[in-house]
Every structure is written in structure tokens, then in C-alpha cells.
Design a protein that fits this description.
The complex is a heterodimer of chains A (287) and B (166). With 287 residues, chain A is an alpha/beta fold. Helix content of chain A is 28%, strand content 12%. Chain A is built from ten helices and nine strands. A five-stranded parallel β-sheet of chain A has the order 1-5-4-2-3. Chain A has a four-stranded parallel β-sheet with strand order 7-6-8-9, sandwiched between helices. In chain A, helix 9 links the parallel strand 8 and strand 9. In chain A, helix 4 packs across helix 9. The longest helix of chain A has 12 residues. Chain B is mainly alpha-helical. Chain B has six helices and three strands. A three-stranded antiparallel β-sheet of chain B has the order 2-1-3, with helices on one face. Chain B starts with 5 loop residues before the first helix and ends with a strand. Classes of the chains: A alpha/beta (287), B mainly alpha (166). At the A-B interface, helix 2 and helix 5 of A face helix 2, helix 3 and helix 6 of B.
Chain lengths: 287, 166
């Protein structure tokens, strides 16, 4: 895969390579953070100095279906020794699926000093780069977070309904079988199902993984444009809602559209199909 | 009757001794480090898809071998290099269930995954690991259905060595 700067992205501010990370391992202004689906991976070996951000314990509200609040985010950032000025470089398993999810949650608190390491943990490991097992510990910071602001990158069900009624574009990043309603859940996720199958009316089906190469890195801008604009006629000025089942896969697509292709208004509907497919009397399309 | 065979119950008790999440994770990583892939005498690549665990993103394959002692021995392959939880599960299933009676194996609840890894597992991860348990159960059920006597509960029969299927 070519260097990130040669791939034609709208912006490279939020994406760094494994080479770049390797050259900046001792930069005190950076904090590397691993976010995985598999809870054993971080402790089995991680980038030297990297902390763990766990998608369940660290990012979600412990009781409600919601994300952490301001004090919770402050506690997280203080624990990893980050300040508002610290650039957090996120990476993880599954083509950075969970890292993009964490990145998106960080944006709810305006922590824009964040980046994704292209290719994630697998690429780093396959390149034979060092992994250590010692958990990284940093002096606690006094991180001060603003109140969570959902308005920019998050969307709720009533807003989605208005979006549908206005005929604005949506991207359903689930598998084709979930999109058509053949399956009520992703193949491996039966307990996160819904009572009804299908998709939100008007949504284009663009599975999230189409944006990723085999090694977990992101495809080039030309390849991405061919998928999102060429095949599906999405334009950079469109008001777009992305969704999946609980909002994690669609975080990956949200990152691609927003940062790599420079789309200006993309929001993630984290209620996604587990909410929409269980709602009473909302429109559903099923071919 | 305790839903877990004795060795598995002892393993669960051992894991429950962990003081916190980090300690438990380290215990599980230590277990995973004992993983040995299926020997060539049982299977070689490319592995037949009939032995692939459904819904397991770590690409875990499961084989059961009929031993002359009329017991079943389990073998595993985990093709995803990052499939450390699957390797841990494979070691636990082999070390605690190989040699158990087939009727006992058939009753091991899939919920054991949560007893081992905790409730914080993602749905995908837990379903893949439960799938490995289901593969072991299915093997035991096929073994019984094919007319073999249960090693501990039944009459002696001539179960030859070899693969009992996926």
C-alpha cells in the first residue's frame, strides 16, 4: 500500500502510518491507545507505551444505553494521563473497527487531537514491529472535558425519521443479508437482533469492510470515491446518516467519509438497527 | 447435577480466584500460551470447512478423535493470528473435556464462555467462543448417536481410533 500522503485523501490529519508511529514512540505529546474487541489482546502485547481503551468499560455508560458523560470521559483521560493538548493515536483489531468507534466517542467531547493508525494492530504485528506486555502507566492528568455535545456527529431516532421523510441519504453499512432483512442480525450476533428485518427507507447498502484492504489499511481516495460516489452517488455536501446494528461498524464508515473523503456532514446513528428494527410504527424497506 | 465436568469446574474455581479483571486476563493469556495446533496426524491444511466453527471470526477449527479407551480427544486450529481468546478456549476445552464421557460433554452449557471470559465480551466474540463449545457438544452427540457406548455410563464397545467428524 502506498504512503498515506500519496493516496489522495481529503485530509491526512487524522490518519498516521505504522512507520510514523514507530518514529514517534517516545513523543511525550502523544498517547497511543489500543481499542479491541478481544479483551485478551492488549495484555498479550501492545505497542510500547500504549494504554488500553476498552469499548465497553471505558466508553459506554454503565447502566443506560448511552456513552459516558463528561465526568466519565474526564476520568478516562485522566487515567491515561492525557490533557486536552495530547494527541491520542488509536489503533486496534478488526481493521480498526473499534478504534474508529473510540475515535468517534472522543469527538463527542471535542477531543479533536486524535488520530487512527492505519492498518491497526494486525498491520503493526505483521510488520514485525515491537509489542510489549507491560501495561503502560502515566501520571494522572487534570483533564477538563466540556459537556458532551452529540449534535455534530451523532443522530437520534426522531432526527433519523425526519431525515428519511426529507429524502436525505443514509448509508447502511451492515452485510447485504442484514440489509435485505434475510437476517435479523449479523451472522455472529444473534442476541443483538431486532424484531423486524430490512433497512431504513432510502438507505444505500455499503458494507463497512469495503473501505478496508486485506491488511486492515484504508483504501485509496480513488477507490473510496468509486464506492461511495461512483456506485452510490453520495456527494461531499450531502447530509448523510450512517448506521449498522449498534453504531460501531458505522463509526468506521463515518471516519472514512468525514476524514478521508472530506464529506462535510456525516452523522452516526448509534441506535442503529437494534433500535430501528424494534421501534413501533417506523417505516422499513424490505426488497 | 453440576453442569460442569469436574476438571472444568476446577478450572472455573481457579479463575474465580483472580482478584480483578487484569489478573483474570493474565490467567487466560497464560492458558492460551499452552495452545498447540492440531497435529498433522489428525488434519493438514487446507482444513475442511466442515470442521470450522460457525460464527467464529478467529477461524477456529475443531476435531474430535476417538481414542481406544472409548473417550474423545479434542484438537483445534485457530487460523486468525490475533485469535488469542479462541486459543484460550481451545486449551480449556481440550484440557478439561478431553476424556470426559460423551453424555457429560453433550450437556456442557454454552454459558461457560461467560464464566470464563466475563460478561464484557462483545456479542460477536462470545458467539464465536460459544460456537466452539457447540462443536464439542455436537461431536459428543454424534458419537452417542452413532451407537457408541458412553465411556463412563455405558457398556463397553469397540470404538476405534479416528476422527469422529467435525
Amino acid at each position: 500500500m502506498s504512503a498515506i500522503e500519496e493516496r489522495g485523501y481529503a485530509s491526512t490529519d487524522a490518519l498516521v502510518s505504522t512507520d510514523w508511529v514507530s518514529e514517534h514512540l517516545n513523543d511525550p505529546n502523544l498517547r497511543f491507545a489500543e481499542s479491541n474487541e478481544d479483551p485478551l489482546l492488549y495484555a498479550s502485547g501492545h505497542i510500547p507505551g500504549a494504554v488500553e481503551v476498552d469499548w465497553t468499560r471505558d466508553l459506554n455508560h454503565p447502566l443506560r444505553r448511552d456513552y459516558l458523560d463528561r465526568s466519565g470521559f474526564e476520568a478516562l483521560m485522566r487515567r491515561i494521563g492525557a490533557t486536552r493538548e495530547t494527541t491520542v493515536v488509536l489503533y486496534g483489531d478488526k481493521s480498526n473497527w473499534w478504534a474508529c468507534y473510540a475515535f468517534w466517542v472522543f469527538q463527542l467531547f471535542g477531543h479533536t487531537n486524535a488520530k487512527i493508525m492505519d492498518g491497526g494492530r494486525l498491520k503493526w504485528q505483521n510488520e514485525g514491529r515491537p509489542l510489549v506486555t507491560e501495561a503502560a502507566n502515566y501520571p494522572a492528568s487534570d483533564y477538563q472535558a466540556p459537556e458532551r455535545d452529540d449534535s455534530g456527529v451523532r443522530v437520534f431516532r426522531d432526527q433519523v425519521l425526519e431525515h428519511v421523510q426529507a429524502g436525505r441519504p443514509l448509508v447502511d453499512v451492515r452485510s447485504p443479508a442484514e440489509y435485505t432483512g434475510e437476517r435479523l442480525h449479523m451472522e455472529a450476533y444473534p442476541n443483538e437482533g431486532a424484531l423486524r428485518g430490512g433497512h431504513i427507507p432510502g438507505a444505500a447498502n455499503i458494507p463497512w469492510a469495503r473501505a478496508a484492504n486485506e491488511d486492515g489499511s484504508f483504501k485509496s481516495a480513488d477507490e473510496l470515491r468509486a464506492i461511495y460516489t461512483g456506485e452510490n452517488n453520495l456527494q461531499s455536501g450531502d447530509d448523510i446518516v450512517a448506521y449498522c446494528r449498534i453504531g460501531e461498524r458505522s463509526s468506521h464508515t463515518w471516519f472514512v467519509l468525514t476524514y478521508l473523503l472530506g464529506f462535510q456532514q456525516v452523522r452516526n446513528y448509534d441506535g442503529s438497527w437494534t433500535e430501528w428494527g424494534n421501534l413501533v410504527n417506523v417505516p422499513i424497506e424490505k426488497p | 447435577m453440576d453442569p460442569y465436568p469436574e476438571k472444568l469446574a476446577m478450572l472455573l474455581e481457579y479463575l474465580d480466584l483472580s482478584g480483578d479483571r487484569d489478573e483474570r486476563i493474565q490467567m487466560l493469556i497464560d492458558i492460551a500460551s499452552r495452545f498447540k495446533a492440531v497435529p498433522e496426524s489428525i488434519a493438514t491444511r487446507p482444513f475442511p470447512k466442515t470442521h470450522l466453527t460457525p460464527a467464529c471470526e478467529s477461524e477456529a477449527y475443531v476435531w474430535c478423535e476417538e481414542l481406544p479407551s472409548q473417550a474423545l480427544k479434542f484438537h483445534f486450529a485457530v487460523e486468525n493470528p490475533q485469535g488469542i481468546s479462541a486459543k484460550c478456549m481451545a486449551v480449556i476445552l481440550d484440557e478439561t473435556l478431553s476424556g470426559e464421557s460423551a453424555s457429560r460433554l453433550a450437556r456442557v452449557p454454552g454459558e461457560v464462555v461467560y464464566r470464563i471470559f466475563g460478561r464484557d465480551l462483545s456479542m460477536g466474540k462470545s458467539m464465536g467462543l460459544m460456537g466452539m463449545v457447540s462443536m464439542v457438544q455436537a461431536c459428543a452427540k454424534r458419537y452417542l448417536a452413532s451407537g457408541h457406548a458412553d465411556r463412563l455410563l455405558g457398556e463397553s464397545s469397540a470404538a476405534g481410533a479416528g476422527s469422529a467428524g467435525p
